[in-house]
Amino acid sequence: MKKSHLKIAVIGGGSSYTPELVEGLIRYHEVFPVTELYLADIEQGAEKLRIIGELAQRMINASGKLITLYTTLDRREAIRDADFVATQIRVGMLDARSRDEKIPLSHQLIGQETTGAGGFAKALRTIPVILGICRDIEELAPNAFMINFTNPAGIITEAVSKYSKVKSVGLCNLPIGTKMQIAELYGVEQTRMFIEIVGINHLNWTTRVVLDGDDVTEDFMTRLGSIGQSSPANIPDLEWDAEFIHSVGALPCAYHRYYYMKEEMYGEMLEYYQATGKTRADDVKEVEAELFELYKQPELHEKPAQLEKRGGAYYSEAAVQLMKSIYNDTGDIQTVNVRNQGAIPCLPDDVSIEINCVIKSDGPHALGLVKPLPPQIRGLLQVVKSYEELTIEAAVKGDYASALQALTLHPLVGDERIAKAVLADILEQNADFLPQFQR
Amino acid sequence: MKKSHLKIAVIGGGSSYTPELVEGLIRYHEVFPVTELYLADIEQGAEKLRIIGELAQRMINASGKLITLYTTLDRREAIRDADFVATQIRVGMLDARSRDEKIPLSHQLIGQETTGAGGFAKALRTIPVILGICRDIEELAPNAFMINFTNPAGIITEAVSKYSKVKSVGLCNLPIGTKMQIAELYGVEQTRMFIEIVGINHLNWTTRVVLDGDDVTEDFMTRLGSIGQSSPANIPDLEWDAEFIHSVGALPCAYHRYYYMKEEMYGEMLEYYQATGKTRADDVKEVEAELFELYKQPELHEKPAQLEKRGGAYYSEAAVQLMKSIYNDTGDIQTVNVRNQGAIPCLPDDVSIEINCVIKSDGPHALGLVKPLPPQIRGLLQVVKSYEELTIEAAVKGDYASALQALTLHPLVGDERIAKAVLADILEQNADFLPQFQR
Amino acid sequence: MKKSHLKIAVIGGGSSYTPELVEGLIRYHEVFPVTELYLADIEQGAEKLRIIGELAQRMINASGKLITLYTTLDRREAIRDADFVATQIRVGMLDARSRDEKIPLSHQLIGQETTGAGGFAKALRTIPVILGICRDIEELAPNAFMINFTNPAGIITEAVSKYSKVKSVGLCNLPIGTKMQIAELYGVEQTRMFIEIVGINHLNWTTRVVLDGDDVTEDFMTRLGSIGQSSPANIPDLEWDAEFIHSVGALPCAYHRYYYMKEEMYGEMLEYYQATGKTRADDVKEVEAELFELYKQPELHEKPAQLEKRGGAYYSEAAVQLMKSIYNDTGDIQTVNVRNQGAIPCLPDDVSIEINCVIKSDGPHALGLVKPLPPQIRGLLQVVKSYEELTIEAAVKGDYASALQALTLHPLVGDERIAKAVLADILEQNADFLPQFQR
Amino acid sequence: MKKSHLKIAVIGGGSSYTPELVEGLIRYHEVFPVTELYLADIEQGAEKLRIIGELAQRMINASGKLITLYTTLDRREAIRDADFVATQIRVGMLDARSRDEKIPLSHQLIGQETTGAGGFAKALRTIPVILGICRDIEELAPNAFMINFTNPAGIITEAVSKYSKVKSVGLCNLPIGTKMQIAELYGVEQTRMFIEIVGINHLNWTTRVVLDGDDVTEDFMTRLGSIGQSSPANIPDLEWDAEFIHSVGALPCAYHRYYYMKEEMYGEMLEYYQATGKTRADDVKEVEAELFELYKQPELHEKPAQLEKRGGAYYSEAAVQLMKSIYNDTGDIQTVNVRNQGAIPCLPDDVSIEINCVIKSDGPHALGLVKPLPPQIRGLLQVVKSYEELTIEAAVKGDYASALQALTLHPLVGDERIAKAVLADILEQNADFLPQFQR
Fold it and tell me: Is the residue at C30 inside a domain?
């Protein structure tokens, strides 16, 4: 892939996360020499895009790197001949997310951005837009890699893989964060560890930990029970029960709390909402408003520390690591979202999974599992994956039956009468964003 | 298998269901000429066994059939050289069942005899006893077929298949009942219909209905929505939503109500319990007391009509049909519980499934599916099956970790903190029946 | 399917086998009341069709059955609204078969009608014509069952299943013959036996034999070694080695001799050819000429005994049994060729297999295997099936690369240089029948 | 695994290949700091071991590396506490190999050391000895990695994986040679290429070639046809047909010639044998005699150039690369033999395969395939793998039936009568080495 030009397009370039990404591109410029960076956004995001664009330009200027920056409201211009297209869109913006969180709560369900009924609504809105972007990539940059951060990242990756020809990889900052936490727990460089993470996006398990070549999984499970696991900013930090973790035989991810501690998580969520009238989306809005105020300051020419509060730690790290490993054919191991193809034999071949991959210039190659997954992991993985398959059918075809089954099947809903009521609210309140259901 | 002697052993012969079975053996005696019938029970059931034995003898006398009846408290005597061993035991009797229903209720969970936390407790108690019976069969009647009605029948079948060499088939009256209801709906003889039922015990779906060779599944789904489905006596008769049923694309079984209408089912259950202080087990105790009063009457020499209230309609039909088809190498199709062996490809090979089988003299042969199962069926099936696999491990090995994971994974529990609390109660209140956990 | 009209179309109605079929239709008319029988053939077969038509009419007249007979050169007329379409065509007629047998011989290879390079050539010629018939059925009789006897029957069934929407079943008289021989060996009615046959067409194994419900496979394997197995008229009757048969652990089919006794079979074939200048096709031509002379005799009004020499014993039995079981939704077990769908897990889902099926009104339902196939069966099955998949690709797409790989992979060829030379001859000598390769 | 001591045991240390290995250990000593090197051999190899030991000591002395060398006739001493156990034994020595080559020739079959009837005989002799070594490793060095070069390396790896607990990796110099040849073809450093090799030992295909991140497989296939592929010293250098290679869609390995060009290979072999009375084993004996003469020269203190003629090019490269990547947890990609575990879905999970793996300190992790294998590769792979499974059963259990089926199934035999005759000769002529068949 080595060439004189290296063009990156960022769809949803006006996102508050963009400075993270720009910072990473600058930091790794020597090994990943981006020459053109296009930030594209939609009309409604024009003002944000302007602010982000100006900050990004100041950051580039300060760095002295030879990166030419463009901002545009024409995503096709951004995509044309790009080598990488990063997608980080939010269809309906934070207002839609706020609804995604509140509708479930009004039905006594967990209201979460990426999982359960909230994540389902987000998927319905997002998939058609993402597939539209894919059409543009197929036409204008057929050799580009699409790097998708848009949530629900696993579902999006699967929809792209099933309904387009674009080469895409789904990315989440959770695995890289987990690996860093484990290295910290052992007080060693991450390079000395080999950590097996397996599952699907936002529902993965750490099944093996190897330190300097010695399998320390048993020891790790013991330490874990006593130490706990910190969560991303957006997930309440409930502590795992040591005995329970031991019985899983693997470290759940932060999002597992919504499943394994359903009741308490719902309780915390409801309490906060009743006390403040706000959900996480509303808080994020405030954080974002502050961030954009900061971003406007002409003297700012680096990523501000406050960005961490936003929940996107390691985000640029994950993104730039992936792109530079593809670019340089590095062959290192990263945990990303790819088409299954037998890597997890208890799931269909054509679904997306999150798994350790060797990153080569032609993309990620999944590493096979050493042992079959135990029933406690297999069962949960399979039922949530079935939910995801149904959600994709619903989103692509505007199919009510698939939508109703998806919600009924999801462990955070699980009752057809509630599913029906929630679905009615979701379809009504998102009508503007769901043309596929208006037929 | 044709031979002059045909010996049947009934383990749990003192059950109130036994007259059903005796009636069936009499009715079909011409084609299934039982010569010896052993009813075996344990010490605590001696009195019931005596009553049942006397009634059975009066029934046989009245029929004029040449069946020699024995009652015994020594199950090995009953098993020795038997051709069929029917198992219909209830470890801990109705008092244990009553606890199985009340413990979950006290944790705001559905308390049901065969599924959820209640069915789980029953499995823990029952599996070791059933495997003990298997040891006896392996020694004393290695060629016998074990016909198991003991619930949870699917889990028991799987435990037997994984941990013994006994040829066993699991049987439930639900499929035969479903088929009869559908034939009634169409107002035709059942022989004119071919009905595909697939899944696992108490969680099967009717996926195809063929009348006189025409696939009428679509039509059937439409009628269903408008007509509803009646339940066995033990399951509240909540009506299915037509739109929901249509979205499943198949007819759920009666037990699916505990999943798909979890909230309402729980509500009904709780209301009844709060109003009466009783659960289903308590009602059954009363029904049984009445039944045994009836059974004692010396002038009674047939199965009394009141037995239907007990919930076991078609029970003798299913049992005798199966045994006589094996005996006669009939090759007809019946829906029974067998080892999967690839018949449902999305489940492991070594688990039990409930599926249409051709019954030959060497046992049931599963019929392959015409189409892969859709995600809405697949996902629920897989997660409940994983629960069952874990439950068997817990029951056989007395393994706490598997037990905790089984309950956490079950859709009717689904929260580790609740699972842990329920499990503590189950282990404590069943301590007398769970030697495997006392190590 | 019960209806007042029952129309059968026979494509290739001028075949010398047709009197077999007509005889069967008459014999079973009470339970399979055909009202219209269409015999269709092509221009070149007009004379034969006339002779067969007249004989068939005399047979029907003699029987007194109410079957209206039509002969036609317009296959679409025959197909329109048919309930069953039987296909028994021979593209290129016996002259082509003669070439199929001689080309391989000239390369020191076995020259056989349905397997090896000969069967390959036949498949290339036949698949496009069969798919043309399928187009007509899709248009004119979309609910009809196609019953295919045309060889290579397994490959044809798979091609139809992959490249058309027609409901089709592939049929061969080998399994029914095997079952009859085994029943004879035991001196019992066939109904007392259950015989498991599994594999692909002309490469199946009898893996289990059950008599009166007792598994007598071991005993059967012993008897077999000592007794031998008779072959259809068209296959030299070489004797199996008892020790070898025992090591297979199953009874091979007659065609297995071409694989397991390759050298001797080739030797016999070559010797006969060198001595007489003839191959089997040439003999069949003579037999057919005699048969048609017989058929012409106005006093003949039944199937003549000489037909047996032709190699089609049990042919009408197999055909009419299948159609009448579909018609009557019988649910009996027959061995037919169907899409795999997981029934043989070591083969792809979308290939054809030959296996025991329960015949219902919606077609055959494969019976699952009780045990996985051992490596000695699995390996041969897989390699020949791969050959078949490649052959279908070659035939449908006119793809030279697939053709060359198919022949190279086949155990009766197995050398790319020989494959290339044979392929060149096949393509040249069949050029008139292979428009797909002329592009 | 980092530790002050690093002990390597070489079983079969008296092999003429050992100087290769010693040279590699010296060359990479900085990153793979062996402290103790044990060369073990059997009584009959004592003289050779002495010569090799003295040469190895001179090489180490000349290098100045701190490696302590031991020679021993007690393999348990060598194995005790070893970190790596390399196995390179030859049961029956070159005389047995000579017989392995001549017996098949006498039946008009290809006589080859590692495949066909010759490789089969070698497997029968070798597996019991290797499993004995495994018993010692299990007892004396349970954490050691066994690196097996002993042929047939794939079969040996599978036997070890099925019948012992030893962590083992099978290694062959063919893949590394293929990669080097391809890099040469493109005139680039090997690090710029990613080459997908998949299959089983001595029957692998190069299915994808990536240069600087661009998939150049198409281009590669074209070049190949025109350029040809050179073979290891031991395989005649017959040229591939360009059209044929194109139709495979992948580059076969050198050993494929025995399959794809069976006739010509046999012809060459026979001609050479008839002209000289010798097979490859006899030539090797001469080469070895010369080599050992060279090795004895006291002034020799490096690997002599003549060793290349022996056929083991890249051997030390492959071996030391693998051990040092495990030792250093390198995570680079190497093509080795491992248990399948779903990596090649069309083969059983428990068989050995040869595939690209990421080498970590806990061993190799197979990389998933990007596309399913096409039928032409799948079919050949499956049939040869089935042969291997049967061979292992035969070797471990001394089972005649499996042995006969293995040979009958092998594409280089393929006829039961020939198989039986060859098997009789093999069992007779190897009787001293096959105690498992003497029961």
Answer: yes
